[in-house]
## 1
Amino acid sequence: MSGKNNPYGNAFVGSFFKTLKQEEVYLWQYETFSDVIERIPYFIEDVYNKKRLYRPPEEYERLLAKNSSREYMMC
């Protein structure tokens, strides 16, 4: 958590909700609550999580090692 009066404290959450609203909520006309329950998890798992650029450090290092060994084999 960030300190008191830190404007960057909620930046990640704010960015996520902005993306959720612009790319999902405003584009669909939900008629029932079950429509929301069905679409929001789909958006988070299958659209947002696959599209974002951030990777956890362990995953990034694993991919970096994999790509480095592949380049070494091609030389």
Note: The helical segments are 11-23, 33-51, 57-74.
## 2
Amino acid sequence: MPRAIDIVSLVVADYDEAIAWYTEKLGFHLVEDTLLGGGKRWVVVAPEKDGAMRLLLAKASGPAQEAAIGNQTGGRVFLFLRTDDFQRDYMEMERRGVNFRETPRREEYGTVAVFADLYGNLWDLIEPRR
């Protein structure tokens, strides 16, 4: 059986504000929101409803996790949102209020621009070179 990375955990401050941001700003789908008890939930969002890659929005528990909110990779780009139409998605994300940290640029590997999520984690919006 082939293996694949299925879900990446993203530490968030609040489930509902994170769900709202990812669904309203990025247009992601809420795939699952299951109560686990004790205030915990299993919250999964994805760019495509049946997509292979998903994010688990995991509410921080304790000071160490709270300190990682918005800086899970020490200020480096954390995740890469691939698109087949950079201009379409860039314009729509800007219209929805996504905070782009730079203007789009062309690189050897494709067209890219860095944006920040609601907590400050950095992402690349990227259309790979064909």
Note: The chain is about 20% helix and 40% strand.
## 3
Amino acid sequence: MQLQDDLTASFAERCYMLLKQIPAGRVTSYKALAKALNSKAYRAVGSAMAKNKDLITTPCHRVVKSNGQVGEYALGSEEKIALLEKEGVKIIDKKVQDFDDLMFRFDT
């Protein structure tokens, strides 16, 4: 992927570029996003999501924990749940249902 070869893009920018590939109704995990960037820095992915200033075009609400738990969101976890449910993702007890089926697989 050209993105991984772009040394001028910051880690956060590379996260956002990948994140924009995830269609509505699908999710990824912090760990999977880090792996797609050839990294183990899933906490850095979380930090990048927390610093996202463009929640509309960079849908960080689609990034959840590896166990399917919704996790945090800049506008609060309830808003994250509302956005995911609006896209057709079923959430029960703050956990994505059918997580494995909804998991977006990056082409790496």
Note: The chain has one domain: 2-102.
